[in-house]
Every structure is written in C-alpha cells, then in structure tokens.
Specification:
Layout lengths: L22 E12 L2 H8 L8 H14 L1 H4 L10 E8 L3 E12 L4 H19 L7 E11 L6 E2 L3
Antiparallel strand pairs: 1-3, 1-4, 2-3, 4-5
C-alpha cells in the first residue's frame, strides 16, 4: 500500500502539488452547537453577556479558514479567495455552514471544516458564562467542487 503523505522511509511529508494547474474549487462544511434553553433564550433576546455571539463566531470562522495551514501540519498554504460562515439559531442550538472558495492547486475541504470548527469554538466561548453544557456536533463536509475528482455531495 502507498501512502500519499509518507515518503519512502515512512516519514511524514507534504504532497508536492507544484505541477498541478490551479482550478476553481469550493467546499461547504456544516456543524452544530447544541445549547441549553437558557443559552438559546439569551441569544434570542440579545442578552449574551459577551456581546453579539453570532457576529464573533462568523468572523472567527472566516479567520479560521485563512489560518488552516498554520493548524494542520500537512495542509497546503493556499489562497482563500472567498469564505462565508452562516449561523442559524434554532430550538436546540446553532447550525453553522461555511463555504470556502479558491482558485488554487488543491481543495479547500480542510479550510471549510476549520471555519466551522472555529466558529463553533467561538460560540462555546461566548456562551460558556451562561451555561457550560454546550456541545459541538456533526462537523462534516457537505459538498466539494472542482479539481480532478470534480463534484461530490453528501447523500445523507
């Protein structure tokens, strides 16, 4: 078996994408922060003590997408040419969706996952003073487009 991120001696390496041509690529990821009712109530009546939790989480998610290669040792440094983070409060928590776009040599799935994860962490940080029973759930890729493998969409 051949591993793409190991060299011939079994040492970790970054895959060389130098010869690949840049193409337009995108990835969408999602996640959920489960919150106790008291947190949802504070979010709805805008009484979260730390301020506008959704705005902070949105900016944190975008920043997370741009910092992905600093966090994941084998991720490539790529141009993040577009990033959006949408947050939707519901009865049991906040749904997060992030879409990241680039015109580069490798995909942005990790950047989209990082955006969702960092946005979720920002929400936990904003809400933890109200109630610590917060839970990050179901962080996953929903769709990716571009590159050699084309389009992929989650079926379930």
């Amino acid at each position: 078996m051949t591993f793409t991120h190991l060299d011939d001696s079994g040492q970790a390496r970054m895959v060389d994408v130098t010869e690949k041509q840049p193409t337009v690529r995108s990835a969408t990821a999602s996640g959920f922060v489960r919150c106790p009712p008291v947190v949802i109530e504070a979010l709805r009546d805008e009484s979260v003590p730390k301020g506008d939790a959704l705005a902070v989480a949105r900016i944190a998610g975008i920043q997370g997408a741009k910092k992905c290669a600093e966090l994941l040792p084998l991720a490539h440094v790529i141009g993040v040419h577009g990033a959006s983070v949408d947050l939707e409060p519901g009865l049991e928590g906040v749904s997060i969706t992030a879409t990241v776009r680039t015109a580069d040599r490798t995909g942005v799935e990790m950047e989209a996952l990082t955006a969702v994860s960092v946005a979720a962490l920002a929400l936990v940080d904003m809400f933890k003073g109200i109630d610590k029973a917060l839970q990050i759930e179901a962080v996953r890729i929903e769709e990716k487009t571009g590159g050699k493998s084309g389009t992929w969409r989650r079926q379930n």
